[in-house]
Amino acid sequence: MTRLINTVIALVFVLGLCAPAIAQTQQQPPPKPAAQDEFLPIDQLAPKEELPAAPLVMAAYAIAWLVLFVYVVSVWRRLGKVEGEIADVNRRLAGGARR
Amino acid sequence: MQKLFFPLAAVLAVMFAVAPVLIVGAPYESTMGLVQKIFYFHFPSWMAMFTAVFVSGGASIVFLATRRKSADAVAVASAELVVAFGLIGLLTGPLWGIKAWGVWWSWDPRGTSALVLWLIFWGYLLLRRFGGPGSERLAAAVALFGMANVPFVYWSVNLWRTLHPKTTVVSSLPVSMGLPLWWSTAAFMGLFALLMTLRTRLEHDRARLDELYLALED
Questions:
Q1: Per the CB < 8 Å rule, is B91 touching A78?
Q2: Average pLDDT estimate for B153-162
Q3: pLDDT, tens only, B77-124
Q4: Candidate from A59, A67, A86 with C-beta closest to B95
Q5: Number of CB pairs, chain A paired with chain B, less than 8 A apart
Q6: How many Å apart are CA B66 and CA B57, to the nearest integer?
């Protein structure tokens, strides 16, 4: 029984030592075969998937202006509302004072 | 400041009209190309946000020490501008990142700490809106906590491994890139001053309205 346990431990140890080598073998990409069927000029390769920068730059500047515009409108509206209310209360106060 | 409002608005209109010319004229950055031009609005929006944080924090210190309502008005007004300018930074950053890094958002120290700072000031505004009477003092403490975060946000790129460029990038810019950057930054700072004037006026008007309602009740 002890012999069997020792054999299993030794096997696990050996497998553990070999594991990185096995993993490395599995991770290696397969070598690219040289062109055998046809030769393709490099400028005929499909374009790489790439995001165009111009819409991103324009979107960034548009967002900046939009945020500022919405904020200014929001402050302006709140100011108008409060100032209108002040005028209203002032009128009521003046009316009360006259009576 | 009220007298300077329209002259300052006129100067800013000219500055923001000239800014695109300078930005278009700036050379492309060698590794990122065109998308790096987002930098000329992205960086100034953060600088305006940091300024707003310091103004809000400073005014909160004055308010806590003296209980002056005018200081509280400045703190509230500035806190709202932290959220507005921070939103520009947080929205323009991912548009740059998706092209430069290949991801919209990465939880790197600069982006994450900036987001946390922005959320702290959202907390401040929510506290002022729903906190009820006496929330001014608690909110002032929140603003101080936010202000203490600014150095952490600024130097995070130097302290930790991050995708963001380091702070040395700005000081090492050639004139052709530095001019549009500092021009835009000056314009954003002017805009901050202009919006502060408007927003502080709103707070003063609200305080005046409260006094008038009290007078009406009497």
A1: no
A2: 89
A3: 999 999 999 999 999 999 999 999 999 999 999 999 999 999 999 999
A4: A59
A5: 78
A6: 14
CA-nearest of B87, B89, B57, B91 to B75 is: B57
Q: What is the 3-state secondary structure (H, E, C) of chain A?
A: CHHHHHHHHHHHHHHHHHHHHHHHHHHCCCCCCCCCCCCCCHHHCCCCCCCCHHHHHHHHHHHHHHHHHHHHHHHHHHHHHHHHHHHHHHHHHHHHHHC
Adjacent-strand bridge partners of B29: B33
Q: Would residue A7 count as lying in a domain?
A: yes
Q: Is B33 in Cβ contact with A53 (below 8 Å)?
A: yes
Q: What are residue B29's phi and psi, to 5 degrees? A: -70, 145
Number of domains in chain A: 1
Closest Cβ opposite residue B212 in set A78, A79, A90: A90
Q: Which domain holds residue A6?
A: 2-27+53-98
The residue range of the domain holding B71 is: 39-217
Tell whether B66 is covered by a domain: yes
- Name chain A contacts of B194, Cβ cutoff 8 Å: none
Instruction: Let me know if residue B7 belongs to a domain.
Output: no
Which among A60, A83, A96 has the least Cβ separation from residue B96? A60
Give me the residues of A, 46-75, that contact B with CB < 8 A.
51, 53-54, 56-57, 59-61, 63-64, 67-68, 71-72, 75
Q: What is the domain count for chain B?
A: 1
**Given CB atoms, is B9 within the 8 Å cutoff of chain A?**
no
- Interface mutation target, options A57, A72, A73, chain B, most CBs of B under 10 Å: A57
Q: Model-level pTM?
A: 0.81
Question: In this structure, is residue A47 part of a structural domain?
Answer: no
Q: Is B15 among the domain residues?
A: no
Residue A39 in any domain: the answer is no
Residue B4 covered by a domain: no
Is residue A66 situated within a structural domain?
yes
ipTM for the complex shown? 0.91
Q: Which amino acid makes up residue B65?
A: A
